[in-house]
Design a protein that fits this description.
single chain, about 0% strand
Length: about 425
Amino acid sequence: MNPINDLLKILSDFVAGIVSGIFAFSPFLADLVTMGLAAVILCTFAALSFMGLTYVERKVVARIQDRLGPNQAGPFGLLQPIADGIKMFTKEDTTPANADRWVYNLAPLVIAIFALTTYAVLPFAPGVVGTNLNVGVFYLIAIGSGSIVAILMAGWGSNNKYALLGAFRTVAQLVGYEVPMLLNVLPVVMMAGSMSLVDIINKQTTLDGNPGIPFIVFFPLSALVFLISGIAETGRSPFDLLEAESEIVAGFHVEYSGMKFALFFLGEYVNALAVAFVFSTFFLGGYAGPILPPYVWLLLKAALIFFIFMWLRGTLPRIRIDQMHNLNWKFFVPVSIVHLVVVMALMKLFVTDPAQAEAFGGILVAPIVQAVILFVASMTVLLVSLAIAARRARVLRLQEEAILEQRRAENLAAARA
């Protein structure tokens, strides 16, 4: 056992051994305490990540936009997250007079809980996972949908019509973009033959534990749509118009202040980081990688994905609400369905397992050949879809120009008359 590569496993086994020794009289109680400690550690990791990411994002976006980021609180502004936390703690906690207090006060807590429980099934290293569910993918999708309930609670409990409208628009966005996200997780599940996140990572590694072919090579279209859908589901730019001041008064949390607002803020960042971890697990091989320890590889991959989130936030403008829904329902959903059907047919036709080829038929090929075939098919579906969308946009633009030209002619004729 390599002490550096297996550091997380060694520490977790050490803590579990101590707890088992203390509660030797009751194995059930020992397991309960161990799970409680693991939950506390995961929540602490998520909270510290939230503090660090707020600082890093402000610095990165400031550099992208050629301006200064935090630089007053502590050296290089490193204490800015702590200053923000103190500000939130000391801010006046207001509650609307006509609010449904139970629903209003529970909403921030519910969204934070659902955001934190996402990490329960994420594998951070070999043998280091909160719980290796055989339906881990289903669990992630179900927990990701839980934030919708909290948002509706916040909009309804505030007893503010603008907060309620903002909540409805947010729910429409989250529900809409969960559909293409689910459709593009299915090829990963089919390739891995399991919904366990550990099995998905193992499928992207070789038998000796070295990195294999990541699923982003097999399904580049699925990776792209999943990433964009993840950005939309977390409400980050350019899909953050639901909380924009120029829209419905900052959305569903307009009536919240102090630590209640901070919990919504925490939920957004923790969810965004979870999307980065999940994307790394599904399409980049998770913790698999050479030389460096597994947990370092996972953090590096998640950091790269989150940097893309920050990069997009610092460069792209917000899109309109109609553009956002058209992109989902008129492009992502039909393209994802076509891609899923093509992938199913090709995976049935070209197989890498001799036993499967003998039992169910199909052409036996090497894994790299299957990867090339699926990559070409995925890119073909993407390019053809973009060509069709571009042609459709051109036709609509020409129709609008023709209508405008006709109106100009009618106005000119009316003026001459």
